[in-house]
Design goal:
2 copies of one chain form a homodimer.
Chain A: H1 18-28, E1 32-34, E2 41-43, H2 45-64, E3 68-69, E4 75-77, H3 78-81, H4 85-91, E5 96-101, E6 104-112, H5 117-127, E7 136-145, E8 159-169, H6 172-194, E9 200-203, E10 215-222, E11 228-238, H7 240-245, E12 248-250, E13 256-258, E14 260-267, H8 269-278, E15 295-299, H9 306-320, E16 326-328, H10 336-345, E17 350-354, H11 356-361, E18 363-368, E19 374-378, H12 382-407, E20 409-410, H13 415-424, E21 428-432, H14 437-447, E22 450-455, E23 463-464, E24 471-472, E25 475-479
Parallel strand pairs in A: 3-7, 15-16, 15-17, 20-21
Antiparallel strand pairs in A: 1-2, 4-6, 5-6, 7-8, 8-14, 9-10, 9-22, 10-11, 11-14, 12-13, 17-18, 18-19, 21-25, 22-25, 23-24
Helix pairs in contact in A: 2-6
């Protein structure tokens, strides 16, 4: 029989080797695995179950704000990708190219979509004629390919899954409103409420914005190793693509005008964020709202009482399953202790233990994954206690992450201190920046830290640019990022 | 203002040009459209909404039978695809090949998945060790690419969407049981109950089976032009892939054995089947269970009563929307008559008309799409009537299609009659076949008809092979197919 601590030992220490700890968790919890194809991962059923719950929560918000899903082609002819100059410059280096169809060499090679602006705009130019056709509010859930040199499970892979929204509006104001609505009402609410990950929101610098956009808004999350991860972006495309793809409409005033557009996306890398924000030495901690299994029932089996215990847990499951995502682990090749570790590694929010003595007393043991709290619960109170505990866990994960984020936003007196903190403590540094791209690039060269965003919340004060010392009123967040 | 019949005139006659009628419906109802990429379509929001409802029904059945979703890579290295000889022979001619990643030429070119057996088996060979790891019951919802020469929206496109199940079992019997469970309990129930399309089920001949399978089961549906469409297939892969990919397990008897596998799929071409089975001269007729909009409310607007009518329809919608998928068409650039045609073209099962006189009488007009039946309904009975009508429409569509199928299964006295019927009436011909591949191929050459399946229901009689005249007890269905 497999003993208690077998596999937990196989996980690297989070403290000592965060990177390897991350890979161990992702693989041992069976979220994803490597394949023989360089940079491509397989998302295993447990990881995909998590993704399905994440999708459900985000898809609901996308639809509630008036968007509809559609599906655009995987392939983009090279000439189409070339239409918007900045866009192609940004994406061409990482495009996978199809050059043969069966035995035939293609006349024009085709990009496997690295993002879909080009193909979608080519269709919008056919669909949009009058102001009555606007707005167009479309989203799609698809696979994306970017030929990455260095890859990491979920965080940076050659192929990943995402949703990408692409909208068309008749005015600049409406496009800006949409860009911000997606950022705050859709993405921020999804990431904070469902994934329990607090974010900092703001605008990207010119250097960091999306290739082809007017400007890009972003949500940035802090991982527990002190590095930051871009959790989602929302782009105001202005009229750049409208001009490149000739998307015009006849307005109410009978004048022909270029449309205004937005695009926005979040990806499977958020699964990586969940691992890195909430996980601990023992494994995953999944937020209850998206956990594939919210409650795992472990029968405590002795020979004489086996039948009785198995009947009881089956009964419990059937009572609970209309309210919760619940499973029983009744494998008999593993000890209960092994199973406790196994399901902790998998991050299941609540464990229920049922032994013969519990049955006699009409009770079960409930254990929380987030804080190891153990409760003896009378059967008649079980649904209520589970409900409350799942809510508490969701809130507790968020509050803990929020406290960690707040504790790791620092201000610095000068660039020397900046370098020291970035090297030793990491986290976010909140400081002034003169707005000059040179300073931004120099800081990156010297510290590997980039400007994550220019937060919406600015102050009426000013200070010295962290690099050149010039007086500026622009506060930014610097950090090393995934 | 747009007049009543403007666009219905733009649809080709179903009677006179079925092919063009089909394309017109798909495009005018905004299910899908062509793109600049040869053979690739865009699935528009209305078509994708239909697909989402189809997915929901099938995904539920797939999960209820114990399967879980996952995601495997889009790319398959050529060497992996080459491992199973029959498989690569069947698929290589239609593979799109990626040869460049960014500016770098790849050492080994990669297939864009034409189906995923090869990549999935390469992982199963790592995952499967013991009998305790079995069965593996996995499904994925993904895009697929096959380089087709002649394409038609939904029916045959270079890229399409599908689900593909891939399971692993410890015995031949269990694999066969799975193959049949998917065919009957999952696919047949989904296609007949949700899509209202009756099917004939049976086994494919050796010639028509899946490349690499032991045998293939199929569901065949009859379109209203007399041609047949393969609606789904379920393959017993035997141990062919297990041997090619070395997938072995240590059984309870401590012996190492090859696993037994199945795979099965249904695609977006079923959307095409819905169009061709249920549609009529006026457009789509969508089965209520999968219709993106089940009820469309049309306010009948006159200047004086406009406000009152708009308030009433808003009220109605908010009352109905917790039970039904309901929308209001309150655009004022179109007449009510134009809107009736428009939503009939889009196949919405029920239309509700509300005018000022109806409000005075506390009633609405309800019109069924399937048989044009018009009902005056008291407001208090509305939910009940809609519920009943949607059920009736679902059942009526199925019964009508079933009757058409039964009327178009014919028996023939000889090959002359066979040719005549295939040419003039089409439909299915139920006849004997000697089992010889030569006869099968000759019939195809001379009539374009193929053996659609060897039905499970055989009789104890025998008869003459339709081509060579040899005595045989094997009944088969011949038809021309999409």
């Amino acid at each position: 029989m497999q003993k208690d601590n077998d596999f937990v030992k196989e996980i690297s220490s989070k403290e000592e080797d965060f990177s390897q700890w991350y890979v161990d968790i992702v693989r041992k919890a069976e979220l994803a695995d490597y394949t023989t194809i360089k940079g491509c991962m397989v998302i295993r059923p447990y990881g995909y179950g998590l993704w399905e719950n994440m999708q459900a929560g985000l898809d609901r918000r996308i639809k509630e704000t008036g968007h509809k899903n559609a599906y655009f082609p995987l392939f983009i002819p090279e000439s189409l990708l070339n239409k918007e100059a900045e866009h192609v410059e940004g994406f061409a280096p990482e495009v996978a190219w199809v050059t043969y169809g069966g035995k035939e060499k293609l006349e024009e090679r085709m990009a496997v979509r690295p993002t879909s602006e080009a193909i979608i705009c080519s269709l919008y130019s056919k669909w949009v004629k009058s102001w009555r056709d606007l707005p167009i509010l479309i989203n799609q859930w698809v696979n994306i390919v970017r030929w990455e040199k260095v890859t990491r499970l979920f965080l940076r892979t050659t192929e990943f899954l995402w949703q990408e929204g692409h909208t068309v509006h008749k005015s600049k104001e409406e496009a800006e409103e949409e860009t911000l609505k997606i950022l705050n009402q859709v993405y921020r609410d999804y990431i904070e409420s469902d994934l329990a990950i607090p974010v900092i929101v703001g605008r990207k610098t010119e250097k960091e914005k999306f290739a082809g956009a007017l400007h890009t808004y972003t949500l940035e999350a802090l991982m527990t190793d002190g590095k930051v991860l871009q959790a989602g972006t929302s782009h105001n495309l202005g009229q750049n693509f409208a001009r490149a793809f000739n998307i015009k409409f006849l307005d109410e005033d009978q004048k022909e005008k270029y449309v205004w557009q937005t695009s926005w996306g979040t990806t499977t890398r958020l699964i990586g964020a969940i691992v890195m924000v909430h996980g601990d030495e023992r494994g995953l901690k999944l937020p209850p709202k998206v956990a594939p299994i919210q409650v795992i029932i472990i029968p405590i089996i002795f020979d004489q009482s086996k039948q009785k215990v198995l009947e009881k847990v089956a009964q419990l499951k059937s009572r609970l399953q209309s309210n919760f995502r619940v499973e029983i682990d009744k494998r008999d090749e593993y000890t209960p202790g092994w199973k406790f570790n196994h399901w902790e590694l998998k991050g299941v929010p609540l464990r229920i233990e049922v032994g013969p003595k519990d049955i006699e007393k009409g009770q079960v043991i409930v254990v929380r994954r987030d804080n190891s709290q153990k409760m003896t619960v009378k059967e008649e109170n079980l649904i209520e206690i589970i409900n409350k505990s799942l809510k508490d866990i969701q809130e507790n994960l968020f509050q803990k992450a929020k406290q960690f984020l707040e504790e790791n936003i620092r201000e610095v007196a000068n660039f020397e201190e900046f370098k020291e903190i970035i090297e030793e403590k990491r986290g976010l540094i909140r400081t002034y920046w003169c707005g000059n791209r040179d300073c931004e690039e120099k800081v990156k060269e010297e510290t590997k830290a980039t400007i994550r965003c220019i937060p919406f919340k600015q102050e009426k004060t000013s200070g010295k640019c962290i690099y050149c010392g010039k007086e500026s009123s622009t506060l930014v967040y610097f950090a090393r990022a995934y």
